[in-house]
Design brief:
heterodimer; A: 243 residues; mainly alpha; elongated; B: 246 residues; alpha/beta; six-stranded mixed sheet; four-stranded antiparallel sheet; 9 helices
Chain lengths: 243, 246
């Protein structure tokens, strides 16, 4: 029995104390958080822009002929957005990441920037489809009421459609960020020492699998729990108009 | 501009959805202070006609002259003219994410350059006019259908329009709420507002209308002052329609 406990204490020490490994884990966590936050911001901005292009096209131009230069521009933008979404959703994120690192950033080999951009671009494609579904779910009457007051298309989107859409898609957006946090675990492929990478590194150095892997798993779980909690709070605050 | 000039003049208005021709050449004149009531069977094109007046539907051909400007001209900034044409919808279409008060003040503050305080003061006056001042801070989901429609009417009025367009304003209401909305519309007509009303409320047409128009298969088949129109219909289709609804 005593042996058992001393064995556990030993493997605990090897995992966390020796060589300040707890600090490595914290550093790994920091890398994971950085990638997630920057990618989420890129993804949100990109996703909203693409969603607005695509839903504008759907509402104004689908099945009609282009009449002005603006129509043609919209058509081309819509095509580019579609292509982007198809390619991003059709390929694994780890391949996108490696392409970014080994091909696009071949000369600088800047892993963290490659990760920011790859995960941001990846998330953007999913956010775009979520936001578009939110915009398309808003009743056409809302659009007409706003236009009949005299708001132009832009302001109708800004004051009427997007605020309502945002509220409707918040659960789906939250889900996307939860997925994003966990997807960053492949960052080790481009020599980034993120949480997963550090956990695996400690495992291979110490020949102890239990503590490093369970610790990493628990940290991811805690991040996701915190994220879910914050999202629920935000949802409740935004729901004040539905009684 | 002379006073006898029409506020809205519709010339040979046509509208097709794909191959389906809904409006086949409508001509109409709406003068200041008129209450034009548009009746007709469902699918006759009467709602499409109304929605063309502020270009929610883009006419296929024809002209709509509003206050001397052909608003179907693609060079015209339609948003400027829509401010002057209030519209009330069958499904109310209040903005559910905004309070009643904000529903009324959004347009005046963002488009007319009113200060929040000024817009709110005007909005409260309008809400008082329809007996809903105590609902200013409520959200649309907390209102009954009749209350929603009354808010929708004053939301349009908040922009201080020259004409009000009503697209079957009572069709989505429970029967006991129709009266309160029609009452507001009657007051509005009495106050001299120019109105175009698509409705199935024949009592309203008879009592408030200055001009009743019967639309059938995309054309105006008959029109006239309400008394003559209802007592002595001439066209067989109108006779048939009236015999079904009266």
């Amino acid at each position: 029995m005593e042996d058992f406990f001393s064995e556990i204490a030993q493997s605990f020490e090897k995992t966390f104390i020796t060589d300040d490994r707890w600090l490595q884990i914290l550093n790994g966590l920091w890398v994971t958080i950085q990638i997630t936050i920057v990618a989420a911001i890129i993804g949100l901005v990109l996703g909203f822009l693409i969603a607005i292009v695509r839903s504008t096209y759907d509402m104004q131009l689908m099945g009609r002929k282009c009449k002005s230069a603006g129509d043609w521009l919209l058509k081309i933008l819509n095509f580019i957005c579609n292509l982007y979404i198809t390619v991003i959703r059709g390929t694994p994120v780890v391949i996108q990441l490696m392409i970014m690192y080994f091909i696009v950033f071949a000369s600088s080999r800047n892993g963290i920037i490659a990760a920011f951009i790859s995960f941001g671009l990846n998330s953007g494609a999913y956010v775009a489809e979520i936001v578009r579904s939110g915009i398309m779910s808003i009743d056409r009457g809302q659009f007409e009421a706003s236009r009949s007051i005299g708001f132009d298309y832009k302001r109708t989107m800004l004051y009427i459609i997007v605020p309502q859409a945002f509220k409707n898609i918040l659960p789906a957006l939250g889900n996307e960020f939860i997925v994003l946090v966990k997807e960053t675990s492949v960052a080790g492929y481009v020599a980034l020492q993120d949480l997963t990478y550090v956990g695996n590194l400690i495992r291979s150095r110490t020949y102890e699998a239990f503590f490093p892997l369970i610790t990493v798993a628990v940290i991811y779980l805690i991040i996701v729990l915190i994220l879910s909690f914050l999202l629920k709070k935000l949802e409740r605050r935004l729901r004040n108009s539905d009684h | 501009m002379t006073t006898d000039k029409a506020l809205i003049k519709v010339n040979n208005l046509e509208k097709s959805f794909g191959d389906l021709k809904v409006l086949k050449g409508i001509n109409a004149e709406i003068n200041k202070g008129d209450v034009m009531v548009v009746i007709g069977a469902s699918g006759s094109g009467k709602s499409t006609f109304l929605r063309c007046l502020n270009l929610l539907e883009e006419p296929t051909s024809g002209q709509i002259i509003f206050e001397g400007v052909d608003i179907t001209d693609s060079k015209v900034d339609i948003n400027m003219h829509r401010r002057k044409m209030g519209m009330v919808f069958q499904q109310f279409n209040l903005f559910p994410h905004l309070t009643v008060l904000r529903n009324l003040t959004l347009g005046p503050t963002k488009l007319l350059g009113k200060s929040s305080a000024e817009a709110e003061k005007d909005a409260m006056k309008l809400l008082e006019r329809v007996g809903l001042q105590d609902k200013a801070q409520s959200y649309p989901s907390q209102l009954s259908g009749g209350q929603k429609q009354r808010v929708a009417i004053v939301r349009a009025l908040a922009m201080n329009p020259d004409v009000m367009l009503f697209d079957e304003p009572t069709s989505a209401l429970d029967p006991e709420m129709v009266g309160e909305v029609l009452e507001v519309m009657k007051q509005l007509a009495k106050a001299g507002m120019t109105m175009v009303v698509v409705t199935h409320e024949m009592g309203f047409a008879r009592e408030v209308g200055t001009n009743v128009v019967f639309v059938d298969e995309g054309v105006i088949v008959e029109q006239g002052a309400p008394n003559e129109f209802f007592e002595n219909p001439k066209h067989p289709r109108l006779k048939d329609f009236l015999s079904k609804v009266l």
